[in-house]
Every structure is written in structure tokens, then in C-alpha cells.
Design brief:
The protein is mainly alpha-helical and 340 residues long. The chain folds into 3 domains: 78 residues, 2-Layer Sandwich (Dna Ligase, domain 1), CATH 3.30.1490.480; 85 residues, no CATH class; 133 residues, no CATH class. Helix content is 45%, strand content 8%. It is elongated, with a radius of gyration of 31 Å.
Length: 340
């Protein structure tokens, strides 16, 4: 009887020990069973841990569901698992997977929109990095209803797409992407206006248009406010702005820009030709960043009326035409010598 009892106890311990050993092995052994370079697993909002375990197993992140379920229950993390899309590319232990779900380490694609791109150039960038198709985006840049309160006369979203680094999930629609960029413009513009209210007689569309010109003209941060002062001084004196980037923008919109501006282009019949049309152009010529908008709202105090490129990213500023023409002859002998 004593031998039988000892044998029964040993058998019982083995029955307990076998699953325990298996469980410990599974919890401590990294696993990845998806084919290819990786898999995506969608965790729906409100999903229970059973459904989450099913999704992870189907996606190749788990070999068995039970170790994951027991670990989640044991650690009390069931209520802390976050919804979203997760990408798995390498073996991981169940504990590490739980940690990622608790941290909300969801998958995002990142894209950086530089300052100074036009709306069409922004779309081309998004298409090039695989975020959308061109036709759908082309239609969306005409959603002027998104900015009707800011610019009732806007012909497109030009100027109102905020340049920044964005993170989007794989399921973010093109409309959601572009709307997020316009929303970010609203947020950042509101902050700028809180610190520097609109100058008397100026509207938001006018400031955005001026800022877009500053963005294209000034290559260094410390010159933006000086460029702004030149443009504002010329507007005050009703002088033509004579801004090359506005003509380049018109050529781009016409599909005839070949990468350089020629003297013959200065007579181009376009409302964006600021050599022949007084005042600001009809609208923004690019999407300006915060520094250019700040410069448009608060130009540097100066009497400058002209500037010319030194061909090194900086400009020479002048108060009179004679000094300006001398600077043009010095720095731009191979370019036209008209006013800037």
C-alpha cells in the first residue's frame, strides 16, 4: 500500500510538472511563425483577450494561445492592452508581446512634409512614398470647404497644408491625411496669432500668401524677417513686389517650368506675375512654415526696398535702386538686372 501511495504521488507530481515545464518553456522561448518579412495584427477596440490571442496566433506572433492568456491573467494586464495595428517581424516571448500591447506600440508610417512645397509637390511626395494614389489626392486639394472660414476665396488648399512630420497608420485614408495637415495648420496658425495678432488691414489669406513668398525667397532663418520687411515696404509704397518665385509658381501651374527662370518669363501673362501685377498675388504659392508666418506677422524694422541673392543662400539688402543695381552687377552678372 505504501509503495502504491508513493507511486501515485509521484505520478501526480509528474502530471503537474509536465504542463508547468511546458508553460515555462513557452513563456521563455521567442517565437515568430509568419511567412515573409513580417505580419500585421489588428487589435480591435474593445476586443477581449481571447479574441486578441486568436488574432496574434493567426498573425504568427504566438505559437500557442494558452501561455499568453495565462500570463495576461497572472500579471493583471487584461484591461491595459491597447487597440491598434501591430507589426511583428522577429521572434518574441509572450511577455514581450504583452508589453508592446500595453505600451500601445502600434505601427505607423512616417512622412516629413518640408516647408515650401506646393500642394501638388506635397501630393507627389505622398504618392512617391506610397501613402496614396495621385488621382485621389489631386481631387482632395480642391476641398476648399475645409478652409472656407479662413479663406473664402481660396481656389485650393495651397498654403494651408502644414509642413511637418506625420505618422499615419496603414488604414488612414488620403482624406484623413490631408485633413490632418489642414487641422495642424489651424492649430499652429492659431498659436502664432495668439502671440502676434494680425496687423491692421491684413487678413489671414494675405499673411499666408506673404509668408509663402518669404518661404521661397529666404533660405536662412535670420533673413526671413528682413525679406518680409522688403515686401511689406514695397506694398506700402505701391511698388511691384517683383518676386521671382511667384512667376515660377505660375509656370509650374501651367506645366511649363523647366527648372530655371529666364528674362522672357518676366513678362508672362499671369495674375501671379508680381513684376507686372501690383500687390500680392491671388493666393499662396507654397505651404509656409512657422518661421515664415512669424516673419510675415512681424517683419524686421527696416527701410530696405530691394534684395539680391549672393548665390550662397544669403541676400544683399539695399535701400535704394542705385545700390541695388550695383549689387546685382556684382552678384548676379549672369542673371537679369531688373528690380527685385
Amino acid at each position: 500500500m505504501r509503495r502504491w501511495l508513493v507511486g501515485a504521488i509521484l505520478a501526480f507530481l509528474l502530471l503537474l510538472g509536465g504542463p508547468a515545464i511546458w508553460l515555462q518553456h513557452e513563456l521563455n522561448t521567442p517565437y515568430f511563425g509568419a511567412a515573409g518579412l513580417g505580419s500585421f495584427v489588428d487589435i480591435s477596440r474593445g476586443a477581449g483577450i481571447g479574441a486578441i490571442a486568436d488574432a496574434l496566433k493567426a498573425g504568427g506572433a504566438l505559437r500557442h494561445k494558452l501561455p499568453f492568456l495565462l500570463y495576461v491573467r497572472w500579471t493583471g494586464q487584461a484591461r491595459h492592452l491597447r487597440a491598434g495595428e501591430y507589426r511583428f517581424t522577429s521572434p518574441a516571448r509572450p511577455a514581450r508581446i504583452v508589453q508592446r500591447l500595453v505600451q500601445g506600440d502600434v505601427y505607423f508610417r512616417t512622412v516629413t512634409i518640408p516647408e515650401g512645397l506646393t500642394a501638388r509637390e506635397t501630393i507627389a511626395l505622398l504618392v512617391r512614398v506610397g501613402f496614396s494614389n495621385e488621382k485621389e489626392m489631386e481631387e482632395l486639394i480642391n476641398r476648399v470647404d475645409w478652409i472656407a472660414d479662413l479663406d473664402p476665396r481660396a481656389g485650393s488648399l495651397e498654403g494651408y497644408i502644414w509642413p511637418e512630420t506625420y505618422r499615419f497608420s496603414r488604414h488612414t485614408t488620403p482624406e484623413e491625411m490631408l485633413k490632418a495637415m489642414v487641422t495642424q495648420f489651424r492649430v499652429r496658425m492659431s498659436s502664432l496669432l495668439a502671440a502676434n495678432p494680425l496687423p491692421s488691414g491684413w487678413s489671414i489669406p494675405q499673411i499666408v500668401t506673404l509668408a509663402s513668398m518669404i518661404e521661397k525667397e529666404a533660405k536662412t532663418a535670420d533673413e526671413r524677417r528682413l525679406v518680409a520687411s522688403v515686401l511689406r515696404n514695397r506694398l506700402r509704397l505701391k511698388m511691384p513686389l517683383s518676386c521671382d518665385p511667384t512667376i515660377i509658381y505660375a509656370l509650374k501651374m501651367a506645366g511649363t517650368y523647366a527648372g530655371s527662370l529666364h528674362k522672357a518669363n518676366l513678362g508672362m501673362a499671369s495674375a501671379y506675375n508680381t513684376y507686372t501685377h501690383p500687390g500680392l498675388p491671388p493666393g499662396p504659392i507654397a505651404n509656409p512654415g512657422a518661421d515664415s508666418l512669424q516673419a510675415a506677422l512681424e517683419p524686421a524694422p527696416s527701410d530696405y526696398l530691394y534684395y539680391v541673392s549672393r548665390n550662397d543662400g544669403t541676400h544683399f539688402f539695399s535701400k535704394d535702386l542705385r545700390t541695388h543695381l550695383q549689387a546685382v552687377a556684382r552678384y548676379q552678372t549672369r542673371r537679369h538686372s531688373g528690380e527685385r
